[in-house]
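Pilot study result, target chain (349 residues):
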Amino acid sequence: MASTDKDLPLKMMVAAIFRSMGYTAFSEVDLCTYTYKGTYKRKQVTDLDVLGIRIDPDLEAFLAVCECKSGEQRAMENLLKLHGVQDFFKAHKAYFVQQKIDVNAREVGAQMGVTCLDKANITTLMKSLSIGESDVLLEHRIYDARSAMAAEHKTLFPRQLEYLRYDFWTLPDHRNIINIVRLLGQMSPDLDARKVSHIVLCHQLTTALALSILRMGSGIIRSNVDDFQDSVLTAILGGARERRDREVLHDTVAKVVPDAHLPLVPEFFEPLIELVGRYLNVVLYSHRIVACLDEMGRRVVLKDDHKQELPAVTDLFHERTIKLSRDALHFTSKVSGIPLEVFEMSLTE
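Predicted structure:
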């Protein structure tokens, strides 16, 4: 998105607010649908200006979505559109932010559970959360830097960039885990551990991978955490029914082609079990891994400036959370072939 976006100032304010409220904020999440008529095609439906995600100690993820408009018209239309997107994402909270909002839209929003905020409301909320102008400027800097890097990614790593933008938020977690590991492996030969843009993309993919692993862990806690290894197998195969179908198909192929040796589970299954086991053993600390990885990625974007502008990661997160976050970086390197040097800054600071 170009920096001339008129809604951008409001988006950055909301991103700062979400972070202050304990969410990890993602900007401009695209909502797509897929069809197959001769060929497999993706069609963009709409986009979310800001998506926030917060993970509780039982690893359940709570989503907040926000639509920002700099104009003063069509408040009701935009509000109803946001409510539909909120329902699609199963978001627990929705915020509609516009320069000016009429009374009717506010009343309808209140009945639908959507919080309506105009520019004055945003300013008041920021003040109550002790968010200053420097916090919003920091969001701008990181956003602008990532946007500039995305132009390079579009040329060198288009599939990885498109997956994060279009696919990740609309696919189930087990597919995200498999797909992201594969995409990381595909980009490994072209990585330059000295280029900040390459490091940032690896951090973004690892953060998304960790989020899907934690959300998968939430389902394991609800199903049978005592036998988590079998639960991980069921989850990574897509659920009980999908696991049964895959096992039947695997046995059938093995009988027809005895020497095929087709694997039933992904090659990274054993390292995944080990990682999930660590996360489930200490959910008090592992539930903040996504926020910690995101913070590490933001520091990479800012490069040398973060030491003056941001508190140390150890001041924001428990040492166990930092260690578990670094476990995710080691897992990414192990299963994808990406050299650990790419994550040197996050592994050593």
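One observation from the pilot: The chain is about 60% helix and 15% strand. A full batch analysis is planned for the follow-on phase.
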